[in-house]
Amino acid sequence: MRRRYEWKRILWAALLLLVAAGCATYRMKNLKLYGAIETGDFETADRLLEKDGKTSQGKNRLLYYLNRGYVSWMLSDFAQSVRFFNTAEDIIDAYSVQVASEALALVTNPMMKPYQAEDFEKVMVNCFKAVNYMQLGQPEEAMVECRRINMKLNALNDKYKDHKNRYQRDAFAHVLMGLLYDAGREYNNAFIAYRNALETYESDYVKNFNMQPPGQLKSDLLRTAYLSGFYEEVAFYERKFGVKYTPQEPSQAEMVFFWMNGFGPFKDEWSVNFTILKGQGGMVTFANEELGISLPFFTGTSGESSSFSDLKFVRVAFPKYVERPPLSHSAVISANRQEYPLEPAENINAIAFKTLNDRFLREMGSALLRIAAKQAMEEVTRSQDGNIGALVGIANALTEKADTRNWQTLPYGISYARIPLTKGNNRLILKVKMTDGRMTEHELSVEALEGQTRFHAFHSLN
After folding, report:
1. Of 171, 89, 93, 169, whose CA–CA distance to 132 is shortest?
2. For the whole model, what pTM was predicted?
3. Radius of gyration of the chain from Cα atoms?
4. What value does the mean pLDDT take over residues 174-192?
5. Least confident segment among 53-57, 64-68, 77-81, 429-433
6. Which stretch of 172-176, 312-316, 431-435, 444-448 has the lowest confidence by average pLDDT?
7. How far apart are CA 369 and CA 367, in angstroms?
8. Which of 251, 155, 146, 157 is nearest to 192 (CA)?
9. From CA 262, how far away is CA 458, in angstroms rounded?
């Protein structure tokens, strides 16, 4: 009897630890870090990350290095930011299924597995690296990152040939490539990249993310077509855009300004109640009449006595995104008595929601498989000891949890503008219009060399 009592004590202690660790979402566990980031206290955020050696080695180490890369970028330590993002990319590339963590996740929840980035997060790693290199004045290194983006996009196309995922191409990534080729006077390559960006906006982004191609992209497409001697293409796009292209003298210097606005969504969880219907030969069906869902599963137990015969309902947890609408509505850059609107080029918020929605059935299948495995484990335990089986049932219910991890320092959206500069010192003013009608201004002093294209990025926080 004493041994059984000790065993139950251990089970209860383990159960309490699981409950304590499992109830909070990823964001709740990191509120101090994200609070510092979202209020612009990046020195504190950097210190918190530097002290967090446990996360840097654990199952959330990818998110750790993504956050370190972002914080270093906001602190203008671009070289350090690149190093952290390099580590993050190495983790992504080296990801492989780990049998032990997969097995643990199957009987607890997917938070037990190492975090694997969303497809758009993988692309944004290279976008951030490219912007870092641009701000370091290293265009060749930035171009390498754009080529890596292109390879990742090609891999996405191969991965989703059935078109079940609507994020298979990234228009902003093609814009980045075009801007870099353009800055290097490689007008032929720039034209191709701009054309790919336009095609992606028109075929994917308008329909899926409600985003039109930027006017600056159309202007750059016409200009690079003309400079490449593609006069038939110039005529074609003149008709398409309803404009007449007039060649202009190149500016003494230029700046491409990226405006990152707000923060993208964070993951939370929601749950659905399913009725479990027992069938023959170890088959059970998870049913939800409200959603019109009926999914059969084989539990591997064909005996007449089954916990499924007693269990009528079960809760299944799924991830969901929570939108964080930005406080900034729009922005313009004022330079040399002219104003240049910053046009939206990427809506990360919309991409995140669409990609999660596209794989909802896959998420549901994984979650129900997890529930089936838990119930089968409970059944086996109950057959040996009813009390311990009851504890396992409680643990199964309390550890049911969705994966609420994601890269939460990505911006809500990215806009950009091309701004003519004069040789020497230029005074630029970023004018941001808030959603309540107020205006805020941020001044920037830029030293420009003749024929040079400068790159700069600014993130308006919430």
Report:
1. 89
2. 0.85
3. 26
4. 94
5. 53-57
6. 312-316
7. 5
8. 146
9. 11
Contact 316, 402 (CB under 8 A): no
**Distance from C-alpha of 306 to C-alpha of 314, rounded to nearest angstrom:** 15
């180490």: which residue's tokens?
Answer: 61
Structural tokens at position 224: 């690079």
| Tokens, residue 272 | 């659905």
Rounded-to-10 torsion of CA 64, 327, 439, 258? 40
Which residues partner with 278 through β-bridges?
284
Q: How far is CA 201 from the centre of its chain?
A: 19
Q: 421 near 251, Cβ under 8 Å?
A: yes
**How many whole angstroms separate alpha carbon 321 and alpha carbon 372?**
25
For 238, phi and psi rounded to 5 degrees? Answer: -60, -45
Residue with tokens 């091309």: 418
pLDDT of residue 309: 44
> Strands 293-298 and 283-288, how do they pair?
antiparallel
Decide if 90 contacts 61 (C-beta within 8 A).
Answer: no
Cα gap 83→441, rounded to integer Å: 32
CA angle 442, 444, 447 (to 5 degrees): 175
Number of helical H runs and strand E runs in the chain: 18, 12
SS3 173: helix
Residue 341 one-letter amino acid: P
| Nearest one of 216, 237, 436 to 345, comparing CA atoms | 216
Which single residue is written with the structure tokens 């840097």?
56
Please calculate the CA angle 189-455-326 and round it to the nearest 5 degrees.
110
Mean pLDDT, the chain, rounded, equals 85
Q: How far apart are CA 266 and CA 264, in angstroms?
A: 7
Contact between 356 and 439 under an 8 Å Cβ cutoff? The reply is no
Contacts of 240 (CB under 8 A, 6+ apart): none
> 11 with 388: CB under 8 angstroms?
yes
Confidence of residue 411 (pLDDT cuts 50, 70, 90): very high
Tokens 């054309």 found at: 195
